[in-house]
Amino acid sequence: MSLARRSLMEAAAARFGWRRAYGDTTQVDALLTEQTETAYTEADDHAALATAKNDDVLAVQPGVLDVRGRVLADVLYLEGLLTGARHRGLATELIERLEDAVDHGHELTVLLADTVRTTAAAHTASR
Predict the structure, then answer these.
(1) Which residues of the chain have pLDDT under 50?
(2) Rounded to 5, what percent of the chain is helix, strand, coil?
(3) Could you tell me what percent of the chain has a pLDDT over 90?
(4) How far apart are CA 67 and CA 45, in angstroms?
(5) What is the structure's pLDDT at 14?
(6) CA triplet 95, 83, 77: central angle to 5 degrees?
(7) Which among 104, 100, 103, 98 has a CA at the least distance from the CA of 80?
(8) Is 18 in a helix, a strand, or coil?
(9) 26 φ, ψ to 5°?
(10) For residues 25-60, b (16+ Cβ closer than 10 Å) or e, as one string?
């Protein structure tokens, strides 16, 4: 496949959130490393913006709500993957990892909801 064609496909995949499957653990590790590096590169910008904007407890709330909504949507998507893996009788280890991810995702949504409640309570207490 030509470089131009592959780049177009990669651009479309990025735009629409498509991911390709990798059957080689070296490729998977490279992708995971790239995701991590990208996230940490963007983290500096997020930290600078958050430091500038989040000057009181209510200023934090919209960001936490946004993250919780995205995490919840992703966790529900993972639940669908888990259901499919179970129904198709896929590898037990895969099902166990998906169960762990779903459980931790739900725990994270609870922690984020508690954080949002804390912003409202702290605002009320500071009046």
Answers:
(1) 1-4
(2) 85, 0, 15
(3) 53
(4) 16
(5) 65
(6) 100
(7) 98
(8) coil
(9) -65, -45
(10) eeeeeeeeeeeeeeeeeeeeeeeeeeeeeeeebeeb
